[in-house]
Write a structure and sequence with these properties.
Oligomer: heterodimer
Structural class of chain A: alpha/beta
Shape of chain A: globular
Largest interface: A-B, 55 and 81 residues
Strand order of the largest sheet of chain B: 5-4-3-6-7
Strand content of chain B: 15-25%
Helix content of chain A: 25-40%
Radius of gyration of chain A: 19 Å
Order of helices and strands of chain A: EHHEHEHEHEEEHHH
Structural class of chain B: alpha/beta
Radius of gyration of chain B: 21 Å
Number of strands of chain B: 19
Largest sheet of chain A: 7 strands, mixed
Bound molecules: iron/sulfur cluster
């Protein structure tokens, strides 16, 4: 996993709330067995609509998605995170995320930055007024910045310390856990024998 | 201070905890299916890792398998690839698999309990958000993403922050003809789809204690639909009786040890929940959704709401969008909404009791002209038992389709989908846009309402049938 310290990229306003993972990537795209190539399924139901924001030339190459509240609710599919990343997003900004989605994001290296609803509104307005504008997301200082001069936006975002540390270090979960192998073995030795098993000798 | 049920189960599974880090939690049972596992196995292979505990892992084929001609090769090439990949991975990594055609194949959340693998006090995970179903047994059970699937395969543990706890107390008794599904839909409509976010919810109170295990599973299944991390119910005699003599239940002296332990799994009297909600079961009536999230529901006797009646601006906009998508007019009585397809099935309502209830209602009636009624048992075992009891005959005689086991129209990954604009009454758990097929319109209902709706062709309750007959 790549380290994430700070990212500056083109922002895109997704003025919708409650974008669940079925909308991020419909189930039909989940049939694949590979780990990459899911960008074609991203927001598939809306991509045919010429007025959909990702179809606006001005936002080509976007890497920071600014979404309405309750982004990523619903099904646990991690493909939602993969689709966003395969498309080129490194950061999603919202005032509320689905729990599983946020967990999946941190693990895959996508930064889910939780900000105040007012910040989302300001960023939306800024991006609408300046299509193609850049947003900077600094994980070290937990700040999001956009614009310049008197109208510049600068605010903090929430992310739990642990996810932040892992993103900064680019650490993969399994490696961390396997370093505690002794603890796992000790625990296993004390498990009651009445617990079920799926295989029988 | 005392502890809540979920805190007890949690504490028993902490392998390692360190300030400022998530707990490392041991996982007792890992359920696997064809959709969210291929990339996890691919990850193991890429990093030369093995499955740490194949004996705590079980796989089945459910999400995209066909419910007709299941003895023939799967027609859809992508589904076939996923299923074949699961078979290859199970073989390579030594994981027990119940493939299509096996008597124990079926929806992963139906299979675990019916094999007796789901037991109180366990931690259970699966790459599927409705893993919360298993909480009905007093287990902590929740959905995980594919990289977590890989993590559990490799380590049999998960890193998890301890959620907050919430009590939902349902006092009183459910009125006749009102089911667990109506109860949970009512609760979600009251709390909203985000009401449970960050919590493990314990459902308790008189109405919950009176429920059968299958009805408890229906409740816990939909915990995720109001945002909860997991939902659980304290194990009691109903739970023990259900597990006893199941194939993988403890036997002999181990049974006694297990039950003794399970009995300790109750919330202490002086335990404090972070949040509490109380609901009166007597007020619950048959409930249906009108919108595109499970919180957008009303009693069957009510009308499609008017977006202007919502005070919250976001909710108002969401309601307007939902009505447009659903093709509904505010003020239309729900009972007048015409239904093209009725789907009885899924891990919410695809078990024996659900089929028995629906069969009982539809017996002696016929499916309405212009409506199709799809009956999809949750597992092959359920299908076989239903056939033993002759339920399939009742459904077939009434003009319904009797299918093989799987997720089917719950999520429209197999050929069982709605056409654009087609409207369903579905006993599943999600009415999201496009969930049952692109452009499809879903009304979530109980098995009772599903069966009555199939007969009348409009959203109905069993009471409507009796009236019509009289
Ligand atoms: S029946 Fe539906 S909700 Fe249940 S596991 Fe299958 S797809 Fe998921």
């Amino acid at each position: 996993m790549d380290k994430f310290t700070t990212h500056t990229g083109l922002g895109v306003p997704l003025r919708r709330s409650n974008v669940d993972t079925d909308q991020i990537i419909p189930a039909v795209y989940l049939k694949r067995v590979t780990r990459t190539g899911f960008e074609d399924g991203l927001f598939a139901a809306w991509r045919n609509d010429p007025s959909f924001v990702l179809n606006n030339e001005a936002y080509a190459g976007a890497s920071v998605l600014v979404a309405g509240p309750d982004f990523g609710t619903g099904s646990s599919r991690e493909h939602a995170v993969w689709a966003l990343m395969d498309y080129g997003f490194r950061v999603v900004i919202s005032s509320r995320f689905g729990d599983i989605f946020r967990g999946n994001s941190g693990k895959a290296g996508l930064l889910a930055a939780k900000v105040d609803e007012k910040v989302v509104q300001k960023l939306w307005d800024h991006l609408d007024d300046n299509p193609g504008a850049q947003i900077t997301v600094d994980l070290e200082s937990r700040t999001v910045r956009a614009g310049e001069g008197p109208d510049a936006i600068e605010d903090s975002f929430d992310i739990d310390d642990y996810t932040r540390w892992r993103l900064l270090e680019g650490l993969d979960d399994i490696g961390i856990t396997l370093s505690h192998d002794d603890d796992i073995a000790t625990y296993e030795a004390t498990r009651p024998s009445f617990k079920p098993v799926t295989l029988h000798a | 201070m005392g502890r809540t049920l979920s805190e007890k189960v949690w504490d028993e599974h902490v392998v390692r905890s360190s300030a400022g880090e998530p707990d490392l939690l041991y996982i007792d049972l890992h359920l696997i299916h064809e959709v969210t596992s291929p990339q996890a196995f691919e990850g193991l292979r890429l990093s030369n890792r093995r499955v740490r505990r194949p004996d705590l892992t079980i796989a089945t084929e459910d999400h995209n398998v066909p419910t007709v001609d299941w003895d023939k090769p799967i027609a859809d090439p992508v589904s076939r690839t996923q299923v074949e990949t699961l078979r290859k991975n199970a073989e390579e990594f030594g994981v027990r698999l119940h493939p299509l055609g096996d008597a124990e194949q079926g929806i992963v959340h139906v299979v675990g309990p019916q094999l007796g693998l789901t037991q109180p006090g366990m931690t259970i995970v699966c790459g599927d958000s409705h893993t919360s179903t298993h909480g009905a047994f007093g287990a902590i059970a929740f959905g995980i993403g594919t990289s977590e699937v890989e993590h559990v395969l490799a380590t049999q543990t998960l890193m998890q922050d301890k959620p907050k706890t919430m009590a939902v107390t349902i006092d009183g008794a459910l009125p006749d003809g009102v089911s667990a599904k109506d109860l949970i839909l009512t609760l979600i409509a009251k709390t909203g789809t985000g009401g449970g976010q960050g919590y493990i919810v314990e459902y308790r109170g008189e109405a919950i204690r009176e429920l059968s295990m299958e009805a408890r599973m229906t409740i816990c299944n939909m915990s995720i639909e109001w945002g909860a991390k997991a939902g659980l119910i304290a194990p009691d005699e109903t739970t023990f009786a259900y597990i006893k003599d199941k194939p993988e239940a403890p036997k002999g002296a181990e049974w006694d040890q297990a039950v003794a332990h399970w009995k300790s799994l109750v919330t202490d009297e002086d335990a404090v929940f972070d949040k509490e909600i109380v609901l009166d079961a007597a007020e619950v009536t048959p409930f249906v959704t009108w919108g595109t999230n499970p919180g957008q529901g009303v009693p069957l006797g009510a009308a499609v709401p008017n977006p202007d009646d919502f005070e919250d601006a976001d909710e108002k906009v969401a309601a307007e969008k939902a009505l447009t998508y659903m093709g509904l007019e505010a003020g239309t009585p729900m009972r007048e909404v015409r239904i093209d397809t009725v789907f009885l099935g899924s891990c919410t309502n695809g078990r024996m009791e659900d089929l028995r209830t629906a069969a009982d209602i539809i017996q002696g009636h016929h499916v309405a002209e212009g409506t199709r009624f799809l009956v999809v048992p949750g597992s092959a075992r359920v299908r076989l038992q239903a056939e033993d009891e002759g339920l399939h005959k009742i459904f077939l005689d009434a003009g319904a389709e009797w299918r093989g086991a799987g997720c089917s129209m719950c999520l429209g990954m197999n050929p069982d989908i709605l056409a654009p604009g087609e409207r369903s009454a579905s006993t599943s758990n999600r009415n999201f846009e496009g969930r049952q097929g692109k452009g499809g319109r879903t009304h979530l209902v109980s098995p009772e309402v599903a069966a009555a709706t199939a007969v009348r062709g409009t959203l109905s309750s069993p009471a409507d049938l009796t009236l019509a007959r009289a």
